[in-house]
Structures are given as C-alpha cells and as structure tokens.
Amino acid sequence: MLAAAASPLLFGVPRLLRAQDGPLKIALLTSLSGPFASLGESMRAGLELMLQQCNNEMGGRKVQLLVEDDHGKPDEAIRKVRKLIERDKIDVLGGVISANIALAIRDIVHDAQLPTFISNAAANGLAREAASPYVFRPTKTSWMLGHTGALWTFEHIEKSGGITLGSDYTAGREYIEDFANTYQEQGGTLGERIWTPLGTPDFAPILMNLAASNPKFVYTFLAGADAVRFHQQMQDYQLHGKIQIVGPGALFDQEDVITAVGEAALGGVSTFHQSPGAPAAQDFVAAYQASRGRLPGEASTSGYVTGQVIKAGLDAVKGDLSNKAAFKQALLDKPIDTAFGPMAFDPRNNQSILDIYVNRVEKDAQGRPFNTVVHTYQRIQDPGPRS
Q: For labeling, which of 28, 311, 334, 346 is most exposed (least CB within 10 Å)?
C-alpha cells in the first residue's frame, strides 16, 4: 500500500535489531549494464570516492559496500533488492538511476522498513502518492527540472514556436508534461509532441522532421546513450546550432554525455540540480578530477552526495540504526552541505529542497565544452503529497 506522507512514527519501528559494533552494510543498486551503464559506473565511482575520503567509516563504524547491477530492468531490480534485504541483511540502500526501477522497488523497501536513499531517479510519485517514511530523495523530481526549464525557456528563449521530444517511459513523460504545463501556464504555446522508445538507435526520422519543421526550440528529455546518439546525429544532419535544444540536465550531462559528444553539445541549455560550475561542487570536482581524470556529471555527483547524506545521519546517531526515528530526525533537523549545494528535506515526504541551476554549454578557459551556470533558482520545492 502506498503511503501519502512520510510519518516519523512509522520510521521509528526497527526493521531488524543487530549488533551496533559490526560493520554497516550499505548497498548501492545501480545500472552497470543496459542503456544507463555509463551512469551506473559514474554513480559507483562517486560513492566510492566519498567512502575513501571518510576512510570507509560513518558514525564511528566501518562501512561494507555491496554493489548490485539492476541491468536497467525493474524485474531484476526487485530480485536484487530482495536478495540484499533477505540474504545480505543490509542496513541502508542507496542508488537507483531509472524512475521505473525506483517505483518498482518502493513497496519492497517500505514493507522492510529499510532506510533507502534514491540517488538519481526523478519520479514525481515518490514525493507524492508513493512517498514513504523510509525513502529519502537526495535528488530532484521531474517537476523541479521541468518547471524551472519552462520558466527559463518562456522568459529567455521563446514564448511560442517550440516542440517537445521525449523518451517514452516514466521519466520522459513526466519531464515533458511538467515542462509543458508550466510553459503554457506562463502563456506559451507549444507545437508537436514527439515520443521515442528508450534505447532508440537511429533518430533519422525525427531529425528529418525537425529539419522540415524548423522549430524555434526543442525541449528534449533523453539520457545516457540515447542523449549521446541524439547529439551526434544532430551534428551529422547539420542541425546543431540551427535549432535551440533545451532540456533537463541529463541531456547535457557533463561526464556521461558531453565527454562523448564534445562540441556537439555547445549552445545547449538545461536546468539541473547539479553543475560542475556550482560553487558548492568545487571541492568535489577537484577530488573527482584527481581520481578519474575528468569532470563529474550528475550520476557521479549523486553517488557522492548520497554518501554525504547517509554519513550526516549516521554521524548524528553515532552509527546506531536501532532508533530509526532519531536517524530520520537528524536528516530533517538542518540542511546538509553537499556537492549539489545546501540540502534540506521536506518533512512531508523526505524529498530534498534544492537550488536548480540553469546551465549553458560553453567553452571554458581550457577550451572544453562546460556546463556554465548562468542563473540559479533557489530552494525549489516539489509541490508534494497533495499534487
């Protein structure tokens, strides 16, 4: 059964009493194969860097990290989560890239009363009708990015003449709908809505459509390998620079998209809770570059931030998870300094309240295509459970 609000009383019921002097078992569920494989590898690298920096210790206890590949498939994710809970007896779960997977495992972690931190998946429902007292969201919702993207597009790009393009699954549907709703509420008018399957190998029919219709802008949600192929094929069809592309940050992810497409991303505009140019990210950016030799994107930053948030809670309770209400309250009591920026949690649903950056891909001082922050929407809060 779905819980509409995150009751602190429910969170206080211990799932399992165990010795508090042994290692903390923290599991990362992520996609190490399938369309989001590169994102999954980056997420793992971000979390591992954070654990390295804290000497694999949180709340005075050593941390044992378990990593599972969900293959980007909800059924596989369900199987892996059940194994982590029943056989491995984990203390905390983090990760999850896809909205479909986040929604698929929600009832399992809720029923197990397992402290869970959704690192990346943006599904609005997890902050609304599917909110759980056991699930924290140290990440954005689809609405937070679609809404701010519409505000910026209407005010600074065009008030009409645009179309939308989205991956036809939960996240894509939400981003496009949230953008369209806010854009039209501002008085904007939109044309065609185009949907494409997740994992589309060839965007030629869509690109020929764009060449013929010549829209003023295309608000686009594509992620991972799909985003890479889209930018590369836009360049192949000589459309890059002729049509303004706007989208959530995954479309221009610094690490997992821009690294692959280079100058084909220049001029792109996105709204995102993450930017390598954000002041709060600079220490992490330097450490990540030293570790992996490249700039971080969302997935690596989200892995790192998830570690920061879990550590803040565990440090506050000195590693004692037998009182989950105290662990939860520690996360709600005050904002946490993270590589995304200051992060407070909404007590209604455990959804983070975040600054959202408007990034424009420009060349930096070293000549690299770089997500440059041109504006910040401060403390954006999802509408929450009654939406």
A: 334
**What value does the mean pLDDT take over residues 21-47?**
94
Phi, psi (rounded to 5 degrees) for 97: -95, -45
Count Cα neighbours of 261 within 13 Å in the Cβ-side half-sphere. 28
- Is residue 385 one of the residues assigned to a domain? no
Residue-wise pLDDT for 257-302, tens only, equals: 999 999 999 999 999 999 999 999 999 999 999 999 999 999 999 9
Question: What are the C-alpha distances in Å from 291 to residues 28, 287, 307, 363, 369?
Answer: 20, 6, 17, 23, 20
The predicted pLDDT at position 206 comes to 98
CA dist list (Å): 272 to 80, 84, 130, 216, 246:
30, 31, 23, 22, 11
Which DSSP letter does residue 372 get?
E
Which two structure tokens, joined as six digits, stand for 311? 């550590």
Q: What is the pLDDT of residues 176-211, one digit of tens each?
A: 999 999 999 999 999 999 999 999 999 999 999 999
The pLDDT of 354-370, averaged and rounded, is 98
Domain hosting 80: range is: 8-140+279-353
At 91, the amino acid letter reads: D
Q: Is residue 370 part of a domain?
A: no
Residues found in the chain: 387
Q: What is the H or E stretch that residue 194 is in?
A: strand 190-196
Cα distance between the two ends of the chain? 18
DSSP assignment of 245-309: EEEEGGGG-IIIIIHHHGGGGTT-EEEES--TTSGGGHHHHHHHHHHHSS---HHHHHHHHHHHH
CA distances from 323 to 345, 357, 378 (A): 19, 36, 33
